[in-house]
C-alpha cells in the first residue's frame, strides 16, 4: 500500500506535497531495506510473491529500482526541505554501503551479482554532475549552510561508493 501511495503522491508533487507523509514513507523505506533487502532474506518470501502480484515487482532488483526512483524524485522536488533531503540522502548512503549483515559486496555496485547497473534510470548517474539549480544543497556559493554541506558530503560519498 505504501508503494501505491508513493506512486500517487509522486505524480502530484508538482502541484503540492506533504512533508510529514514523505518523511513517513522514507521511514518505511528504511525499515523495508533493513528487513527485506539483503543477503539474509529468503528470495521466495511471501512479500516478493505479493509484490509481484500487485505491483509487478518480481525481485529485490526491481524493488531497488523503485527506491532509486524515489531518491531521484525527492532530490528533484524536496531539495529545499532539509529533513526530507537529509533522510533521502541517508537512504542512498545506506544502499551504497551494502547489505545489513555487513557483507562486503555492494548492494548497488558492479560486484553484486544479479543487479545490472545500466538498468537504473539515466538521471541517477547524472546526479553528480548537476548544479545547484537542480538540487539546492549542491550549490556552491557563499550562502551554503552547514546542513547543505552535510547533505553534499553524504551525497558525494554515496555516489563515490557506487
Automatic annotation (TrEMBL):
It is found in: Cytoplasm; Nucleus. GO terms for biological process: protein export from nucleus. InterPro entries: TPR_XPO7/RBP17 (IPR057947), XPO4/7-like (IPR044189). This is XPO7 protein. The gene is Xpo7. One of its GO terms (molecular function) is nuclear export signal receptor activity. Belongs to the exportin family. Residues 1-104 form the Exportin-7/Ran-binding protein 17 TPR repeats domain. Keywords: Cytoplasm, Nucleus, Protein transport, Transport. GO terms for cellular component: cytoplasm; nuclear pore. It comes from Vidua chalybeata (Village indigobird). Its main location: cytoplasm.
Amino acid at each position: 500500500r505504501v508503494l501505491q501511495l508513493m506512486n500517487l503522491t509522486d505524480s502530484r508533487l508538482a502541484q503540492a506535497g506533504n512533508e510529514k507523509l514523505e518523511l513517513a514513507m522514507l521511514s518505511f523505506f528504511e525499515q523495508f531495506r533493513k528487513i527485506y533487502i539483503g543477503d539474509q532474506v529468503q528470495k521466495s518470501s511471501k512479500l516478493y510473491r505479493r509484490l509481484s502480484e500487485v505491483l509487478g515487482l518480481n525481485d529485490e532488483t526491481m524493488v531497488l529500482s523503485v527506491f532509486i526512483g524515489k531518491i531521484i524524485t525527492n532530490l528533484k522536488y524536496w531539495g529545499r526541505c532539509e529533513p526530507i533531503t537529509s533522510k533521502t540522502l541517508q537512504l542512498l548512503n545506506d544502499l551504497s554501503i551494502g547489505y545489513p549483515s555487513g557483507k562486503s559486496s555492494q548492494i548497488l555496485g558492479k560486484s553484486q551479482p544479479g543487479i545490472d547497473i545500466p538498468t537504473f534510470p539515466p538521471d541517477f548517474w547524472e546526479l553528480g554532475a548537476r548544479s545547484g539549480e537542480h538540487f539546492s544543497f549542491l550549490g556552491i556559493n557563499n550562502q551554503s549552510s552547514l546542513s547543505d554541506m552535510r547533505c553534499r558530503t553524504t551525497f558525494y560519498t554515496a555516489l563515490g561508493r557506487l
